[in-house]
Amino acid sequence: MATDDLTFLRELEKKVRWLSTWTVHNANHLRDNTDGLKVGGHQASSASLSTIMTALYFSVLRPEDRVAVKPHASPNFHAIQYLLGQQTREKLETFRGYHGAQSYPSRTKDVDDVDFSTGSVGLGVAQTLFASLVQDYVRAHGWGKERPEGRMVALVGDAELDEGNVFEA
Fold this sequence. Notes:
The chain is mainly alpha-helical and 169 residues long. It has a single domain, classed as Thiamin diphosphate (ThDP)-binding fold, Pyr/PP domains (Rossmann fold). Helix content is 49%, strand content 5%. The chain has helices at 3-30, 43-47, 50-60, 74-83, 89-93, 123-140, 164-168, and strands at 66-69, 152-155. Helix 1 packs across helix 3 (50-60) and helix 1 (3-30) packs across helix 4 (74-83). The radius of gyration is 17 Å and the shape is globular.
């Protein structure tokens, strides 16, 4: 990869990290909140994946690849989708609120392109593993040869590795 490309990715990563941190901070401290309760969010967990996710979404992934993003990194995912033009500022401003971006990637509740819903910690590992097995099964039976084979990526953290389904899969 050229030096200019790496420099560009580093700059994008800063934007992703800032935007994901702002999203959580806004939800907890800036927007109107009548009951005074914080809505939470995982800024450190998001920051831990900002480099990997920036490289994946802006340089590595192909259209046929699928990614399961750990739930605690959803602010990163939404920030990346915003920078790609697939998420609105309004959804980021209402993160974890009514009609806002979800606190975990959701295929049914988010407007951006979520490959796997990962609301329960640890699901992403099993989902990508079994999706890969299904893809292999389809290929072994001679079906779907006209479509390129995608890679399955599970982005996990320590919380996912504490779940039994990760080891059962």
